[in-house]
Design goal:
By secondary structure, the protein is an alpha+beta fold. The chain has two domains: 116 residues, Beta-clip-like (Beta Complex), CATH 2.170.270; 121 residues, no CATH class. The protein has eight helices and eight strands, in the order H-E-E-H-H-H-H-E-E-H-E-E-E-E-H-H. Strands 1-2 form a two-stranded antiparallel ribbon. The protein has a two-stranded antiparallel sheet with strand order 3-4. Helix 2 packs across helix 4. The longest helix has 14 residues. The N terminus is likely disordered. The chain binds S-adenosylmethionine (SAM). S-adenosylmethionine binds next to helix 5 and strand 5. One of its GO terms (cellular component) is nucleus. Pfam families: SET. It comes from Salix purpurea (Purple osier willow).
Length: 254
């Protein structure tokens, strides 16, 4: 199973944070260990089934007419320029970050996203190592992602496993499916998070701060049940998500 699918499934389970840093918050918290086989939390909202449609001659499916209309606007902006050399360069180098920037820029130009959406990119503040890490994290690529209400599918691209997993879920008409959320995918994990993702009934996601956040402070969410002890958390994150957690709580030995 791809890291992406595992990640989206874990995230989907955590409608509420499990180990909040700020106990004064009024959010419903729990510090109990989650049994992943029998989730005690409400399921995430169902992902709407994609409707088949033909879009600019390419086979593209959307979850609703609204998604289709939203996508059309920025897709038209995107296709006004010749991106062939740009896309080829990114594919050859395995770069996804510039593709994300392109897509976001076209969304902003078309009015499908606000200019503030670009704030998250801030390339001038990123070190080379951070860009490399982002590249690693951007497995949602340009081929298939959800941004707000937008869900697009194209064919003939490299990340087959991801597509097959998601498509299989949709084809099985499962009540709960997988979606990839572009901006929330950029949040790093912290065993003492300062934010968490709230799922809304229509499958939108919102980020909620768990405490006062300083300007320039990184927003970090939790991917796992952080009521586990240090070793269990490290092992869970390493085996389940493929990284060694470097958060303050872990580095300070709990
Ligand atoms: C969903 S992505 C998070 C966003 C990613 N850093 C990016 O820039 O796209 C998950 C990846 O971020 C990195 N990461 C997230 N939280 C981390 C943590 N606490 N310690 C070390 N690496 C972390 C790992 O490489 C992980 O595979």
């Amino acid at each position: 199973m791809s890291r992406l699918v595992r990640y989206s499934r874990y995230l989907s389970r955590f409608k509420t944070p499990i180990f909040p840093r700020c106990q004064h918050s009024t959010l419903p918290f729990s510090t109990t260990t989650v049994d992943y086989n029998k989730p005690s939390r409400p399921d995430p909202p169902p992902i709407r089934k994609l409707i088949s449609t033909e879009f600019h001659g390419k086979g593209v499916a959307f979850c609703s007419q609204e998604c289709k209309d939203n996508a059309k606007v920025f897709y038209e902006v995107e296709t006004k320029a010749d991106w062939l050399a740009f896309d080829d360069y990114c594919r050859n180098k395995g770069l996804k970050y510039p593709l994300l920037v392109k897509r976001l820029a076209c969304m902003v130009i078309s009015g499908a996203a606000s200019a503030e959406s670009l704030d998250i990119l801030q390339p001038s503040n990123l070190s080379h190592e951070m860009v490399l890490e982002m590249e690693e994290g951007l497995w949602f690529a340009e081929e298939r992602f959800c941004y707000g209400k937008y869900f697009r599918r194209t064919d003939g691209f490299p990340h087959q496993e991801m597509v097959q997993q998601s498509s299989a879920c949709i084809e099985a008409e499962a009540a709960v499916g997988n979606a990839v959320y572009m901006l929330p995918s950029l949040y790093n994990h912290d065993c003492d998070p300062n934010a968490h993702i709230v799922w809304i009934d229509n499958a939108d996601a919102q980020l909620k701060a768990l405490c006062d956040v300083e300007e320039d402070e990184e927003l970090r969410i939790c991917y796992i049940d952080v009521s586990m002890d240090h070793d269990a958390r490290q092992s869970f994150l390493l085996q389940g998500f493929g990284f060694k957690c470097n958060c303050l709580r872990c580095s300070s030995g709990d």
